[in-house]
Amino acid sequence: MTWRPVLHRSVVLRHDRVRGIDLLLLPERVVVLHGSAGRVLGLCDGSRAVDDIVAELGARYPGAPVAGEVPEFLTALRKEGWLR
Amino acid sequence: MTVDPPWALLAELTHGCPLRCGYCSNPVELTGRSRELGADQWSDVFRQAAALGVVQTHLSGGEPLLRRDLPRIVAAADTAGLYTQLVTSGVGLGDRRMAELVEAGLRSVQLSVQHADPTASERIAGARSFAAKERAARLISASGLPFGLNIVLHRANLDALDELIDLGLAWGADRIELAHTQFHGWALRNRAALLPTREQVERARGVVVRRRELLDGVVELVWVAPDWVEATAKPCMGGWGAVSLTVAPDGTVLPCPAAAALPGLDPPNVRVRELAWIWRESKAFNAYRGESWMPEPCRGCALRSVDHGGCRCQAHALTGDAARTDPACRHAPDHHLVRDPVHGPRTGLAYAHREGAP
Question: Where is the Radical SAM core domain (chain B) (predicted)?
Fold first, then answer.
């Protein structure tokens, strides 16, 4: 199975300029994204498979532990129902 | 003191409403339609709110669908970068309106219903409305927007919780919010008819636990606890001037929708002041901000950072002093004001409904 993650229709990824952080906006809820989580989710547009996302991030941030952490993070958000 | 920016804006577009719910928490004296802010003024409010740090807005009322310029207002909120939710009775939501709102950038809808039985629902609402709500539910569901169904709970519908949850599932809701009546504004007049018994609340809580397990996260069941029956102060608004602000139909800015009833608050208005000043500097927003205003027993209580001393408006409504500990709290010196009615006998279920239009 090749999962091409995309945010659920009710979830909006937004950069909060006032606080200098990335957010997920949902009905009745705001999720504060830490570190580079927002940049990872910015690649989840339904066109990239998880492997593509990992490769792209790996090229952009050499030495970062993306191969282990990114798929785990995406799976956790899928479980929340925020990614599909 | 540095003040953290607000996250959410409750925009009360109008006090006009086709329903006359017995539990209405809007003020007894409603704002007239001629005093409402125009779409351009709302547009400016949204821009200021976004610049201040607000990321979400709830377009509420009254019934926001009474505003013919609602699509323009939605578009203005969306353009300002706010995640926009419509809070509606569903009355007045037709095909064209729904399409216009989606086109304008609406992100989610919260629909209210009063009971699963049409006759009972209309008796509580004080108006014919059930068929319109059914139609609204179909349209919201078909639009693909996230759909929250909100049910205000009280003595006349608490025993029908299973049926209400079934209704939410049948209507295609993604989230069912079961929120106990807040005794503010008009609702306080009907307290005797609205206040549930402790046994009812216990049974209802059991239903929620059972249904949550069965639903397994497919539909979210939210239970907003009854502060009176549980003798526990609610963390009102997440703290005074901490998370959210309300702009009333005439532009008055309040730390919570019920705060218009507080004497001496002298709430500022967006027609006169900048929202940033109102949030950070105004007397109204600093009156009960933080913990320094707190009396005993709140001041020495471990829960003060959880419940923020409870609800200022409730303290005022029941004791005449907004700075007292919320009488809903079992530790409050005035707790008997809540305990006595909760433990006392119940009267009939007849409501006083509002008369006339605002």
Answer: 3-218
